[in-house]
Amino acid sequence: MHVAAFIAGLFCCLGVALDAFQTIVLPRRPTGRFQITRIFFIVTWKPWVVMAERARDKKVREQIYSIYGPLSLLLLLLLWALLLIFGFAMFYFSTRSPFSDATMQNTASAWAQFGTDLYVSGTTLFTLGLGDVVPHSRLARAFIIFESGVGLGFVALVIGYLPVLYQAFSRREVSVALLDSRAGSPPNAAELFRRHSFEGGQEAMAALLEEWERWSAEILESHISYPILCFYRSQHDTQSWLSALVSILDTCALLISVIEIAPSRQAQLTFVMARHALVDLGQAFRVQDRKAWQRQTEVNRLPSQDFYHLCEALGHNDLRLCGDPAAAKRLNTIRALYEPHAVALSEYLRMPLPVWVAPAKQNDQWSVLTKLRTDAESALKLRDDHSVFYPDE
Predict the structure, then answer these.
(1) Which of 52, 258, 338, 377 has the smallest set of CB atoms within 10 Å of its CB?
(2) E strand map for the chain
């Protein structure tokens, strides 16, 4: 019995140490199926999704989803702490609980002794040092010293982990928020082209795609190291890192396969990096083995009839479209390279994917601003044509 207790304690402590090392310290995707963090997400995320889907109101449902990321972080840290407390308690129990406890009688049962072991383990891990329970063996004292060091290291690890996590989240969300003014909210490829249909818009789009190439590389580095960030949602319900990433991929797909403008070369570079991030994140959650991956062929974000609607919407922006009848086929070919991964991640994380062409809005602020700017330019041109002189005030 005592040997089994020692093995159980060793299993718990080594499991937490390995999982914390892979989750926090190791800068790459963890390997292996039996990981505490992975099991934790499997056990908690599905029930959370079921609970959220019961909410009929979309805003309430999104609010429930947004709570999971920060809450799961706290629960994961709590789980590690409980496993360490239990593991060291099993170590003490394996040494026949060599403690003098004033609250216990000499005829205390094994369960009562194990309760004392848990108490000693908890106060030692959090370095309380109350001194009301005193160890009588050298081995128990060695365990207490070692657990105190583990407790200090655990607290230091948590203190260093949280700022890194939230800094990566903040950097991600800045670019997602900036895309709101470039591609609408929620973002979509047609809107991004519409808002760049001005003189110098091609250069601005090339700079935007270059920025998102770097953003995708940062996502690849940070979210593979800390997959829990994928559950963190944006502040606004119409925004998400996944919809932003897919809308950029849609834009690159159009530039590569359909539209003939200057940024097509930069679009290839951005597409490769963005798809790399999308595929690797899908592998981190193993979504390829899920039902979402199996039924991705049933989800078609751009049916054939909508392709011509898209071309019509882009044509209104004075963009030169390829007249080749195989343009739709080329676009479908490049879509097949990333859409299955996007659909699978969307199904797993419950983050909606962007549409290709958003329906027209009644109070479109961008249209209002564009009209005001056009009127101002017309007034200036009219003034110049008539050589109107405005004296200085």
Answers:
(1) 377
(2) 99-101, 133-135
Q: Tell which residue, 3, 6, 37, 38, has the closest CA to residue 20.
A: 37
SS3 31: coil
Q: Which residues pair with 321 in a beta bridge?
A: 259
Q: To which residue do tokens 């590389």 refer?
A: 217
Measure the CA–CA gap between 313 and 347, rounded to whole angstroms: 28
Residue where the block lists tokens 């299993």? 11
CA atoms within 13 A on the CB side of 384: 6
Instruction: Please state, in angstroms and as integers, the Cα–Cα distance from residue 207 to each residue in 185, 189, 262, following that order.
Output: 20, 16, 11
pLDDT digits (tens, 9 = 90+) for 299-312: 678 877 777 778 77
Q: Is the pLDDT reported for residue 276 higher than 90?
A: yes
Q: How far apart are CA 50 and CA 41, in angstroms?
A: 14
**148-202 pLDDT, tens per residue?**
999 998 888 888 888 889 999 999 999 999 998 888 888 988 889 888 887 788 8
pTM: 0.84
Stretch 117-130: mean pLDDT, rounded? 86
Report the C-alpha gap between 266 and 113 in whole angstroms: 68
Dig out the tokens for 214 from the structure.
């770097």
- Find the radius of gyration of the CA atoms of the chain: 29
Name the residue ranges covered by the structural domains of the chain.
2-136, 165-377
CA distances 225 to 161, 230, 280, 365, Å, are: 12, 11, 11, 39
Q: Between vectors from CA 217 to CA 212 and to CA 221, what angle results, nearest 5°?
A: 145
Residue 337 is which amino acid? L
CB 356 within 8 A of CB 306: yes
Q: What mean pLDDT is predicted for residues 242-268? A: 87
Give me the helix-helix angle, 241-257 and 201-225, nearest 10°.
130
CA distance 304 to 104: 77
> What does the pLDDT look like over 21-42, one tens digit per residue?
888 877 666 666 678 888 899 8
The DSSP-derived string for 236-250 is STT--HHHHHHHHHH
